[in-house]
Amino acid sequence: MPRATSSVLPIELIEIALDFLRGDAKTLAVCCRVCRTWSPRARYNLYYQVELILFKIVPFYAAVDRNGNAATAIRELSLQGGWEKPKEPMRHLRTTNLRTLRLHYVDLNNAWLPLITYHARCSLTTLSLKRCSIMTPRKFVRFLQRLPHLTHLEGLEISSKRREEDVDPTEALPALQSLCLMGRKDLALTLLQIFTAAPGGLQNVTVLRIALYTRQLAKFNVLLASFAENLHELELAVDPDDPPPEQTSLPSLSACRRLSVLTFEVRLCHVYPRSFKDHLSWVEHFLESIRAEDLRNFKLVVRAAGAMPADFADMGLSTVDCVLCRAPFSSLQRVVVHVKKASFNMERDVRREMAMMDMKGILQYVQTAV
């Protein structure tokens, strides 16, 4: 770049232009070598978001190791790989400013993780795990306890190599603000039980996403009561595996007084040979238990794989429509009915069954193939 051009443009404008290049690694790598004034900002954007396949982490580590300040620029790191354990490097990666760590298909017993998280233990706030493996819930708890500033934890389809029924953590876990446990339902409830039993529990959690079986609803109801007071957003996905829960064990949202967003996902048809046609009969009582004064958004997700039009009639959407017209739902601003994997279009039937929500102009219908 000519010297005259560099003096005409203020460095503030150049830095804004470099910010727009974030994600373009090749161009930013060139910008790092243009001049000394460009280098800090270009390096900051070059390493801000790093996505790696696990078997390529060795050459990446070597490249970062040659540039002492590069690792400190990483804010978001995504690792994707298989279950193999790559060779352990000589030194820790100095990720002192790492805020978000995303792991996909990674074994948490991997020798690399402590080398990445050691220097990030005071900066890491978000951890996302997708289809990852943990040795045991106990070891997973110990892993989380080494991240004291973690506030957001997402676990999608995580699995455990060994099951443990009773894990009683004696040390406090991170003060989570949001928790997602979707996929492996037995492990999800076990982890939720561990989090609520830990000192401090889930008192700071405002967002919870969890998937459960029908038989787990009674225990979930007990656990929910311990942290429901501060809950603002709840996503609950329920798969039928038993007859409908008894009246005494129905889940209740009466303690969720601050709830403003509710997403409720159900499977329309029972998946087992023995069909319980009334397996959704408890949904009406579940919605009637809501006592939140500021519930604004309600989303009903219906998984309709293998369903016929008659199955929608058995679901009783008209009853749900009547419940949503009652006083506790007067603040509703949007009602979404999301139908997944249906072999026919149900929009006309849904709008007919939920006529009152449709008349208010707050009903939205969505249908997807997945």
Quick take:
The protein is α/β, with parallel strands linked by helices and 370 residues long.
Task: Record keyword descriptors for this entry.
14 helices, about 20% strand, 12-stranded parallel sheet, disordered N terminus, two-stranded parallel sheet, about 375 residues, alpha/beta, 14 strands
Enumerate how many helices there are, as a single number.
Answer: 14
**Strand order across the largest sheet:** 1-2-3-4-6-8-9-10-11-12-13-14
Helical residue percent?
25-40%
- What gross morphology would you assign? globular
Organism: Trametes pubescens
InterPro entries: F-box-like_dom_sf, LRR_dom_sf
Protein name: F-box domain-containing protein
Describe this structure as you would to a colleague.
The chain is α/β, with parallel strands linked by helices and 370 residues long. Among the domains are: 12-47, no CATH class; 237-369. 30% of the residues lie in helices and 20% in strands. The chain contains 14 helices and 14 strands. It has helices at residues 3-8, 11-20, 25-31, 39-48, 57-66, 113-117, 137-145, 185-197, 217-224, 283-288, 309-315, 317-324, 347-353, 355-360; strands at residues 49-53, 76-80, 100-104, 126-130, 133-134, 152-156, 159-160, 178-182, 207-213, 233-239, 261-267, 297-303, 334-340, 363-368. It has a 12-stranded parallel β-sheet. Strands 5-7 form a two-stranded parallel ribbon. Helix 5 (57-66) links the parallel strand 1 and strand 2 (76-80). Helix 3 packs antiparallel against helix 4. The protein is globular, with a radius of gyration of 25 Å.
